[in-house]
Amino acid sequence: MEPDEGEDRTPLLKEPRLDGAVPACCSARYNLALLAFFGFFLLYALRVNLSVALVDMVEPNTSLAKNTTSNVCPEHSSTINTPRNTTGKKYSWDADTQGWILGSFFYGYIVTQIPGGYLASKIGGKLLLGFGVFGTSAFTLLTPLAADLGVGYLIAVRALEGLGEGVTFPAMHSMWSSWAPPLERSKLLSISYAGAQLGTVVSLPLSGLICYYMNWVYVFYIFGALGVLWFFFWMWLVSDTPETHKSISHTEREYILSSLKDQLSTQKSVPWRPMLESLPLWAIVVAHFSYNWTFYTLLTLLPTYMKEILRFDAQENGFLSALPYFGCWLCIILSGQIADYLREKQKFSTVCVRKCFTLIGMIGPAVFLVAAGFIGCNYALAVAFVTISTTLGGFCTSGYSINHLDIAPSYAGILLGITNSFATIPGMVGPVIAKSLTHNNTVGEWQTVFYIAASINLFGAIFFALFASGEVQDWAVSGYHLHRN
Fold first, then answer.
1. Which residues lie below 8 Å from residue 114, measured CB to CB, with a gap of 6+?
2. Among 250-254, 315-319, 409-413, whose mean pLDDT is lowest?
3. C-alpha 420: how far from its chain's center?
C-alpha cells in the first residue's frame, strides 16, 4: 500500500481502472477483512470458552444424571494417562443453573443489536467494533472473580459481555457498506465473518487443554488478554471509510467509491416504517432465527452431548466439538468465493445465488442433524454427521447472512441489528429448552432436541426461498431508480 501523496500529484489523464482489476493483495479492503477476521476470531473464542470451562467448573455429582448416562453408551476414552490438573475451584450448580449461565450472554447481546446498527450509521463502525471487543475482553478477564462471588455475579458478567459483543456484527456490516464493492461482497464478508468459526475451532480444544493441564481460570485470562491486544491494532490500522483511510491507493479508493455510487442513500433519517414493512427483510429475519436455533443449540450443548451421551473425556471432547466448526470455516471461505464467481462470471442473479446458498445451508444441516440422533453409540458416525451438518451451514454466510447489503447497503448495520435481535432469541431459549428436555440424558431426549432444531431450519429455508430479494429496495436509496447489481 503506497501512500497517496505521490499518486495525487499526477494529473488524472487516464481513467483509473474500475473494471475490478484493482489488485486484492495488500489492498486496504482486504487488510480490513483480515483484521476483522481476527476480531471475530477472538469474539467467538470469548463467547465459547465458557461452555468448555463449565464442564470443569461444576462438581461432577451436580451435573445431574451422571449415573443414568453410563448405561446408554460404553465409556469411550483414549488411554492417555496424563495427570489432570485439579486445582480449579468447583461449584455446585445444577443443570438448570448451568442453562441460565450459558444463556445469560444472550440477554446482553440482544439489547445492543439495533442500537449498535443505529450508532454505527451515526458514529461509524470502527470505534463501535473496537470498543465492543475491548469491553467483552475486559469482562472475560473478570469471569473467574465473578464465579467466586456467586452465580448471580457470573450471570451479570456474562450478560455484560453480551452487551459489548452485541454491537460488533452491526458495526461490521455498517463498515462494509462503505468498503465492499458489490461484486466482492461475498468474498470480503465471508473472510471477515469466517473468523467467528475459526475462533470456535481453536478455542474449544484449546480451552479443553487449558482446563486439563492448567486450570480453568486461564481460559478466561488468556483469551481476554488477546482481545485487549487486538483492540490496539484495530484502532491504529483501520478507518471507517475509504475516504478517511491513511494509506489506501488512489486507484483503490476510486474503484470502491465508483462501485458504490448508486447504492447508498444520502438521506439522514432512517426510513423505519417502510423498512419494517419490507417482506425481503422479514425473509432474512426468519432465516436468521432458524439457522441460529440449530447453531446455538449445538454451540452451547455439543460439549455436554459428547460427554454425557457419547462419553468422550474433556480433552477429546474439545477436539471433537471443534471439528464441526472447522468444517464450517472452510465452507464459509469457499462458498464466499463461489458465490461471487457465480454472480460475476456466470452472470447468476444476486437473488438466485442468495436463495440457493441459503437452501443448501439450512436443509442440509437439518437432514444430518436428525440422522445424528439415530445412530446410537456409533461414535465415528455421530461426529461425522454433526460435522457435515455444521459444515453445510457455512453456505448461509453467502446466503441470507449478507443479503442485508443487497437490499439496503446504507442501512445494512441497522438491518443486521434487527435480524440479529430476533436471531438471538434462540441463543437465550434454545439451550434452556434443550437442557430441560434432557434431564435424564437419554438418546431419545436428545433426538427430540435435534428434531426441533431441524424442523425450525426447514421452515426458515422455505420462507427465505419464497420471499427474499436481491435488489436494492426503493426505500433504501434516495431518488435513485431501482437497479440490479
1. 170, 414, 417, 418, 421
2. 315-319
3. 10
- The whole-angstrom separation of Cα 272 and Cα 281 is 12
Distance set, CA 96 to CA 99, 305, 470 (Å): 5, 16, 43
Instruction: Place 7 in a pLDDT band, splitting at 50, 70 and 90.
Output: very low
Least confident of 297-301, 405-409, 436-440: 297-301
- Cell numbers placing 430: 434454545
* Range 61-94 burial, b when 16+ CB lie within 10 A, else e: eebbeeeebeebbeeeeeeeeeeeeeebeebebe
pTM above 0.85, yes or no: no
Task: Give the N- to C-terminal CA distance of the chain in Å, as an integer.
Answer: 28
* Interacting residues of 43 by C-beta distance below 8 A, sequence separation 6+: 132, 133, 136, 165, 168, 195, 196, 199, 227
The span from the CA of 362 to the CA of 385, in Å, is 14
